Amino acid sequence: MTVTSATVTGEIADAGLDTAVESEAGLCATGRAVLRTGSAALPSIDAFEQAFPPTSRPAADDHTLAPGKRLGIAPFRVTAGFATRYLSDIGETHSLYAGGGFCHPGILLRLCNWALTQNVVLGPWIHAASKVENFAATRVGDELTVRASVTANYEQKGHRMVDLDALIVANASTLVARIEHTAIWRPRQVAAA
């Protein structure tokens, strides 16, 4: 399916912003944004053990994606070339990202996807959902890492699902985001084949 245009709408509700993306095919995505309130402590970077991808990736299965399994990515420096290609791929033209020196927040979700793809061999798979809590902006030139752990591996509607709890860290010291990331690591159509 090729989507030529999409409409994004937002509505203020319950001290936040509810968003929806619709195309000719119907509702494509929903989201909710809220400002952090209160004085809750930030996650500790040190509480999330740094892990690195294995030299030989095993196949994705219930053991390699077991709850408690630590995942990470090879440290990744966001170059101007990478940032420009990413913006082109998603059709983003806002000056904050295009020439403004800031990394598009979608790059953080891509890093969480890499925490899966750099650690296990996946067949067809789908990024299903993310809940993001942002703490700092990332800039072109930052070196980013992911410190993630598998929190759940389960079946839902015939799909094999995995949930990650991930921290994005910039330059080995700045907490950028905490992301609850969900993926279908084996779609039911693959399992049935």
Descriptive overview:
It is a single chain. It is built from three helices and nine strands. The chain is mostly beta strands. Strands 4, 5, 6, 7, 8 and 9 form a six-stranded antiparallel sheet that branches. The chain has a three-stranded antiparallel sheet with strand order 1-2-3, with no helix packed on it. Strand 1 (6-13) and strand 2 form a beta hairpin. The longest helix has 12 residues, at 106-117. The chain is globular and about 45 Å long.
- The proportion of residues in beta strands is 35-45%
What portion of residues is helical? 10-25%
Structure class: mainly beta
* Mean pLDDT over the residues: 91
Main beta sheet strand tally, sense and closure: 6 strands, antiparallel
The count of helical stretches stands at 3
List segments where confidence is low: pLDDT < 50 over at least 5 consecutive residues: none
The total of beta strands comes to: 9
What is the helix/strand order?
A: EEEEEHHEEEEH
Q: Cα-atom Rg, whole angstroms?
A: 18 Å
Global geometry: globular
- Distance between the amino and carboxyl termini: 23 Å
Main attributes?
193 residues; 40% strand; three-stranded antiparallel beta sheet; mainly beta; six-stranded antiparallel beta sheet
What can be said about this structure in brief?
This protein has 193 residues and is mainly beta. Helix content is 15%, strand content 40%.
